[in-house]
Amino acid sequence: MSQTEPQKLIAGANAPLPTDSISIRILSQSAVDCAAYRLTTDGKVRGDGDMIFYGQTRSDDGSVSFRGHDSDGFFDINLPAQPTSIEKIALAFSSAQTLAQVGDVDIQVLQGSQVLMTCQLIATGRNEKAIILAECYRRQGGWKFRFIAQGFEGGLKPLSEHFGVDIADEAPAQPQAQNQSQNQSQPINTQRPINTQKEGSASPSN
Q1: Percent helix, strand and coil across the chain, each rounded to 5?
Q2: Are the CB atoms for 108 and 64 separated by under 8 Å?
């Protein structure tokens, strides 16, 4: 037997994380688009550099990165290096199919090669095409992991906009011609909108 059996979490359960670098592995039976969002206390990103996904595989400071592919992806997270303004890191995925069509999704929390926790998202009867899987969040000077498994209407674009990311429409982003400082109630996303379209995939909007 291995030194410690991984802890199995059900939806809504949480467990402490090591105060170190961890990896979160997302295993699915079909291709899904995984994303991580670094969030402040208001549940929003500070800017587009806080979204990590296939089109932007590192956070702006490099302390969160994505590797792997669309049915076996890893988010590598350096917890001690997170800026103090970041309260949580949400992990989610979206797909062109419903979760019931995608099949069960497994999540592993690893420290090095050791699996610390496992969670299984059961697909039966789930018709959502986007899921907020889990989050790492600060608690009493440390970090904890919570398995969420919450369905979300829409795909990657509305999911990302929910977290405050400015997503480009299908047309290419325009050059930054508007340099006026707009002091309205939108302090986030002063950068160019992120393009979530994969190369060569012209998906007509239904």
Answers
A1: 10, 40, 50
A2: no
Where residue 50 falls (left for φ over 0; alpha for ψ -120 to 50; beta otherwise) is: alpha
* Least confident piece of the model among 100-114, 142-156, 173-187: 173-187
CA distance 24 to 91: 9
Three-class SS state of 76: strand
Q: Please tell me which residue, 102 or 155, carries the higher pLDDT value.
A: 102
143-170 pLDDT, tens digit per residue, is 999 999 999 888 888 899 999 998 877 5
Q: How far apart are CA 190 and CA 194, in angstroms?
A: 11
- What three-state secondary structure class fits 168? coil
Instruction: Reduce the secondary structure of 140-167 to three states and give it as a string.
Output: CCEEEEEEEEEEECCCHHHHHHHCCCCE
- What's the token pair of residue 188? 């986030």
Q: Residue 42 — φ and ψ, nearest 5°?
A: -85, 5
Give the span between the Cα atoms of 42 and 163, in whole angstroms. 9
- Say yes or no to pLDDT of 176 above 60: no
Q: From CA 66, how far away is CA 200, in angstroms rounded?
A: 21
> Tokens for 58?
């590192």
What global pTM score does this model have?
0.82
> Which burial class, exposed, middle or buried, applies to 61 when counting CB atoms under 10 A from its CB (0-12, 13-18, 19+)?
middle
